[in-house]
Amino acid sequence: MPLESSLVGTKIGPATTEVDARWAMAYAAALEDYLPCYLDTRRADGIVTHPVFPVCIEWPAAIALHDRMRESKLAQSEAARGVHATYDVTLHRAIRPPERLTTTLTLAAVERLKPGAYELMRFDTVDAQGRPVCTTWYGTIYRGVEVAGPDRPAADAPALVTAPKAGDTARAEIPLAISTGAAHVYTECARIWNPVHTDSAVAAAAGLPAIILHGTATMAMAVSKVVAAEASYNPERVRRIHGRFAAMVLMPSMVTVRINSRASANGGDAVSFDVLNADGSRAIRDGMVLLGE
Amino acid sequence: MPLDSSLVGTTSELVPADVDVAWTMAYAAGLGDAMPCYLDTTRERGIVAHPMFSVAIEWRAMIQIIQVLSEAGFPRAEMLRRVHATDDVIVHRPIRPPERLFTRATLAGIERRRAGAYQLTRFDTVDEKGAPVCTTWYGNLYRGVEVSGQDRPPPDAPATLAPSSGAAPTHASFAIPISPLAAHIYGACARLGNPVNIHTDIATAKKAGLPGTILHGTATLAMAASRVIAAEAAGDPARVARIHARFGAMVLMPSEVEVRISGRQRNPEGKTIFFEVLSTDGGRAIRDGFVVLRG
After folding, report:
1. Which pick of A189, B15, B110, B164 has the fewest CB atoms within 10 Å?
2. How many CB atoms lie within 10 A of CB B204?
């Protein structure tokens, strides 16, 4: 059965999440990122969460939306063909645990793309005073699945930051070891439970060669390297992150974070990057981290 | 305020735990143990939990015992002087997820020790048919805390084992790197419930007078057990019948510890492997360690 575009506009939430230091620290630990700003609870202004941490608080709403979609026409077997395709988070300010945050999900778009049905979710997270904390656009492609109804693209999705043209040589190529248990550890530390990343029987049933690392884990590890190399180890400078997911990251393996260029854009510095998997295929393409002051 | 030995005999409710593959796989992954028997769900017989996984399901029953102490007036400040002193896990059979298990904690003993008050908690875990799965004797030492009432040691705690030939040369040793983030990962992967503690929160650790955050004793023990299983049980955790340890020196992060296998002894049921774990500065993080293997 197809993905119904009439579902666009469906909302989940608002749902409240308590973000505590333990969760925030565990998330950074899963990425093997041990910057004191993530872990040292003695700091006068406390710790901050990793810039990709919002995915943790957004996950329950995404599950609730997909449960609702399965109640309509999308079959379980079709839902299992969903792959994370795009990610775009705007960070209005850093998250400083403990914080009570509230997230609302809006199904922002459903449209036909060549490989299948494309779904775009928008997450708006605000703090206890109702002030914006982060906005995420999270795209999923259901491979080989049709769309019912007219295409309904998102009217208000932000334009991607145009990546500055890369030179012939990368600014940096940073190797990253992905351990055998990386997805299991990321799952528990992020509190994102999706068995295709951890259960080899589920991965085999989905037609995958083995369990694969979460796209957001690869993204977060790459962002850690960008923060270290280009933002003087200060994640609070990160204003926006986007990228498109492509090749799989198997475990164990080595990936390479390639920082391609850096240039002024959108009132900050845009650092473009991609991530190459062990075969040299791009696991993340069109990666960009926008840094402010 | 002293620890009241009249509380011995207090029990928790029977606490259920739904043990799924995600949890047991994460526990093994949190130890850096990637053996297929823990992770490969395509195996015909499914996967098993690491033999030290029981600590993950015992935690919630432990909270109830702590609650009893708290309601009896035992102050939080003295609670924070608690250190994990001993661990003795009797494995009746491997845990094969998914399983629904039930754990009851019993405050089994309170007695005076030179360093303070020693409390022994017994955890009995059974399956849905009521058949025993594992029994753990978990010892806490409250440093510098008195005991009120007479010493009440448990009459039925299993005897510790020692090599018959006394001190033995090292048979094998294994270095284990402990990452700066090992305790965060272990706590999350085991799903241990304490939110702020000396293992992951540097502010709490410093307040407790520690030089830094320290790795959980059960993490050190589980990592050591992994090495013993790989080296002495042909990588088969189902052979583990018992794991015993006394905890001593702290394991700081990052560091490297050394697992030393100090003896092997045949017995009618199988064999016993004696080991110790040395911290970076040579202190014994685990002493009197042994793993009893079936077969």
Report:
1. B164
2. 18
